[in-house]
Design goal:
- By secondary structure, the chain is of the alpha+beta class.
- It contains twelve helices and five strands.
- Strands 1-2-3-4-5 form a five-stranded mixed beta sheet.
- It is globular.
- It starts with 12 loop residues before the first helix and ends with a helix.
């Protein structure tokens, strides 16, 4: 049963831990059916489950014939996931002769979160260490295992099942995100996890379930159904926008630093409001001072086959031929074959300098180095 059906789902725990009342506020908005990215992620999870079960000799139905977004990249990701999980199982066997492996396991953490449950991609149980593995197919946002509340909720649910059967003192949580070349693992003791559950998770979850607590805007707003017209988010971003009345060279350093820390969220909020207003206008709502118009149109052929025949008959080649880009080529060949054939024929230039928070794991580039490059 997907954890999206839970009022306080594990997958949304980062948001409701940061902004407890957002849960009940969101209930007045209908589901939008999910994005194409979410649909692709769901299919990738189905394939991962099948490849892992097959690798472990567990009977399972092949979902490939029914996957609308299946491609070589998804296949490579699923096979890589299965291989990585099997390596963790072998690791578990070093301390436990017969570790237990559960795939797409429903877990219940309602002892700390009202009606809380979720579905963990993979749980490996052994004496000493409980391992939780979560597959992420997304390419846009890098997901870290460190202090990841979704993973910690899954771990609590797994402890509820196995704590009395195994001597568990350590929990290892792994995010497997192949399209970002990201395998992130974080370890926490059983005692620390339970302390967090009692002192942080439980009281905030109680507030969220009751619709209480303070609204708080931040990057976690991105998946909130109320993000388009949440007053707290609007006030926070409008407060920042007031700095626009001063030219950048007149701002104090601390003001520029504040803007840098919030500008991405400000842009995201503005785009969300604009998208919401457009959808409402298309549905018939009239906004004072605004009107719907027809956007830029794109020319297209009405019959490709006739165009090909006509142009060819006139003595011209109607086709454009060019080398596939690296991403498209990798999808065509599959990751393993791509690396085998073309790894020696790829170069990667230095990226354009960009400002990021100190928490970013990329190494800092000295401005002196950049000056030398320019020369």
């Amino acid at each position: 049963m997907p954890d999206s059906h839970a009022i306080l789902s594990a997958s949304a725990s980062h948001r409701w831990l940061m902004c407890p009342p957002s849960v009940r506020l969101s209930e007045q908005f209908p589901d939008d059916g999910g994005s194409e990215f979410a649909a692709e992620g769901t299919e990738a999870h189905e394939l991962c489950e099948y490849r892992l079960k097959s690798a472990m000799g567990i009977p399972a139905d092949d979902p490939v014939p029914h996957l609308q977004r299946y491609n070589e990249e998804m296949e490579d990701c699923a096979c890589g996931y299965a291989t990585h999980v099997l390596s963790l199982v072998e690791e578990a066997k070093q301390t436990c002769s017969d570790p237990k492996v559960l795939i797409e396991q429903r877990v219940d953490f309602s002892q700390w979160v009202p009606e809380g449950f979720g579905t963990a991609d993979c749980i490996i149980v052994s004496d000493g260490t409980l391992r939780i593995v979560d597959y992420k197919h997304g390419l846009g946002v890098l997901v870290e295992a460190e202090n990841n509340p979704q993973m910690k909720c899954y771990a609590l649910g797994a402890l509820e099942i196995f704590d009395v059967l195994y001597d568990i003192d350590t929990i290892s949580m792994t995010i497997y995100q192949p399209r970002r070349e990201n395998i992130s693992t974080w370890v926490i003791s059983r005692e620390e996890l339970l302390q967090w559950a009692e002192n942080t998770l439980k009281p905030i979850a109680a507030m969220a379930f009751a619709g209480e607590g303070e609204f708080c805007s931040g990057e976690w707003c991105g998946f909130c159904k109320a993000k388009h017209n949440c007053r707290a988010r609007a006030e926070a971003n409008l407060m920042l926008a007031k700095h626009d009345f001063k030219m950048p060279e007149l701002l104090e350093d601390f003001e520029i630093e504040l803007i840098l820390s919030k500008v991405d969220e400000l842009a995201s909020w503005a785009n969300d409001v604009k998208e919401y207003a457009l959808k409402q206008a298309v549905s018939g709502k009239e906004w004072h001072g605004w009107k719907l118009v027809e956007g830029r149109s794109v020319r297209k052929f009405t019959d490709d086959d006739k165009v090909i025949k006509t142009v060819s008959k006139a003595g011209f080649d109607p086709f454009e031929k060019k080398l596939l880009g690296i991403t498209a080529m990798q999808k065509l060949l599959g990751r393993a074959r791509f690396d085998e054939l073309l790894s020696g024929l790829i170069t990667k230039s230095k990226g354009k300098p960009t400002l990021v928070p100190d928490s970013d794991k990329r190494p800092e580039v000295s401005s002196a180095v950049l000056d030398f490059k320019d020369e």
